[in-house]
Design a protein that fits this description.
ADP-ribosylation fold, binds zinc ion, three-stranded antiparallel β-sheet, disordered N terminus, Arc Repressor Mutant, subunit A, 2 domains, 225 residues, alpha+beta
Length: 225
């Protein structure tokens, strides 16, 4: 199976007519301005995820208890305090907005002049995500060497504060492959999970979080390769 592995993203353009951020060089019948090439976009997206989820303190960025950071402050901190600031001399608020709005997985949320990561934090934040009672099957990508302990003890949050699941098998495979050489996919019965008292929250386009997945909720193990 071919996976993107998160290693490439399309460029982002800005429409000269309507001002929309788009992934196609033509909009409203006119050619657009190139805002971010794919390489800069990917680099900025990874940095934003890292800062908003894990390391705001490394750039002295203040994040409130709900995970919000001021976009102007972020731009300033990346350009002046980040160790790789030389790679971001071009950065403006607009680049951060465009990356957040067009994120393929819905990793970010923008409100006024603030931005936050919707999921994946290791810093302590309180994010009210909508509870989901519709999704029936969820997937979790892991590695073969973790399997026996997971089947005994269930899926625990580890470094992150919540357990991350996805309704997309492709994304689960990507996640599993990123973790090592022997990817394994766990198929999870979301209804049983809820019935056992573990609420399921929708966090991104395909990402769902919960506090813990008991072993009984793992309906199937799929070995990749
Ligand atoms: Zn347009």
């Amino acid at each position: 199976m071919k996976t993107k592995g998160g290693n490439s993203l399309p460029s982002i353009y800005k429409c000269k007519v309507c001002g929309a951020y788009v992934e196609h060089p033509i909009h409203c019948g006119r050619s657009c301005i190139l805002l971010l090439n794919g390489e800069r976009r990917l680099r900025l997206s990874k940095l934003l995820s890292a800062i908003l989820r894990h390391i705001p303190h490394e750039l002295s960025i203040s994040i409130d208890e709900e995970g919000w950071a001021d976009i102007q402050e972020l731009v300033y901190a990346i350009k002046h305090k980040w160790k790789n600031r030389h790679l971001y001399s071009w950065l403006s608020e607009e680049h951060i907005l465009a990356v957040a709005i067009l994120d393929p997985k819905g990793r970010f949320e923008v409100r006024g002049h603030s931005i936050r990561a919707r999921y994946g934090h290791s810093i302590k934040v309180k994010i009210d995500l909508p509870e989901d009672d519709e999704v029936k099957i969820l997937y979790h990508g892991t590695q073969l060497d973790k399997l026996s302990s997971i089947l005994k003890e269930g899926i625990k949050p580890m470094r992150r504060i919540k357990v991350h699941l996805t309704k997309s098998i492709e994304e689960a495979i990507e996640n599993a492959m990123r973790k090592g050489k022997h990817p394994v996919i766990l198929v999870i019965d979301a209804n049983l999970l809820r019935n056992m008292g573990h609420k399921v929250f929708k966090a991104g386009k395909n990402v769902y979080v919960t506090d813990y997945v008991p072993p009984q909720c793992i309906k199937e193990v799929r070995y990749i390769n």
